[in-house]
Amino acid sequence: MRILRRALAQTQKELFQFRRDPLTVMLAFLLPFVALLMYGFATRLEAKDIPVAIANYDSGKLSRDYVDTIFASGQFTPIAWSGKRVLQPLDDSDAKATIVIPPEFSRKLKQGQKVDVQVLIDGTDVNNARIIKNGLLALTESFLAQERLPRKVPLVTAKLRLWFNPGRKETLHIVPGAIALVTWIFPALLSAFAMVREKEQGTILQLYASSITAFELILGKTIAYFCIGMAESALVITEAIIVFQIPFVGNFFAFLLCTVLYVASGVVFGTWAGTRASNQMAAVQICAMVGFLGSMLLSGFIYPIRNITYPISLLSNVVAARYYIEAARDAFVRGGSWLAHWYAPVMLACITLFFLTLGVAGMRKMQLSK
Fold this sequence. Notes:
Blueprint: H1 2-20, H2 22-42, E1 50-56, H3 61-72, E2 76-78, H4 88-91, E3 97-101, H5 105-110, E4 118-121, H6 126-146, H7 171-201, H8 204-209, H9 214-243, H10 252-276, H11 280-297, H12 320-334, H13 343-369
């Protein structure tokens, strides 16, 4: 009880200092709100309106219908060019692909003859080139089916059905991951600033001279910024549901438990960073390089974890955002049960205890060195 009373006294002191600074309060809640809007609206993985040049050397109706089919999909958009060199739009970066329709295209198709359509694709962006290739192949198949033209019938036909997200809404994939990034980095920064502020203002010497232990100090600051972090997460999750129209379909208590542990992991990481940093700039660099970049690149937010090259892929096992993103996507997209991601709260608890131990050890080392 004595340890808890001292920790709560430190918590009250931190919350009082937080309320006294209106700028910090505004940034603590305004920046997460704006950051989620930027991630939700600016992050797009599906390529649309890809500029494409058409060199149509056939004057028949089928060639014009083929061109209309390509641009009716909304995935590609035509560009105007002189038509002198088919590589000119690619060389000038005006188009990502050039489609060359040969002469006698319509006549040969009506007679059931083979027609070769040349497609030149800008391969500087490998992922975009793959999207263009697959999109044009699919549109060509769709054109042949609409015109009832003879085509090779595959022996096996797959009937596909999208589950969980049949409308292919990209926000259902992006926004839960953005929630994870925002609800981790800002509590971590605030708790790191709180630790560094004690050093910059010289009040850390008073704490060294007092009877408060390193564990009580870290615990008090952690509780204070955990409360602030939970308020930030509530704001961000509410914003995501209202602004981006993503429904909550999962287990509420499972998601709440993961949120509590995830925010706690961000706060204790920030306190550890504060014990290691000598000023606020150093604290920002630690949180940005270790926390933010790790959460962005090694969590599965944009790229699947299985695509990360070994041995860097091993680092994803200790990134808290990886487990919370899985829990968030389960809560907002899949709607699974407790057993769907039972390991997420276990790993988040382990990561929280790990950084709490490091923070207490770092604080105790600082006290002994003075």
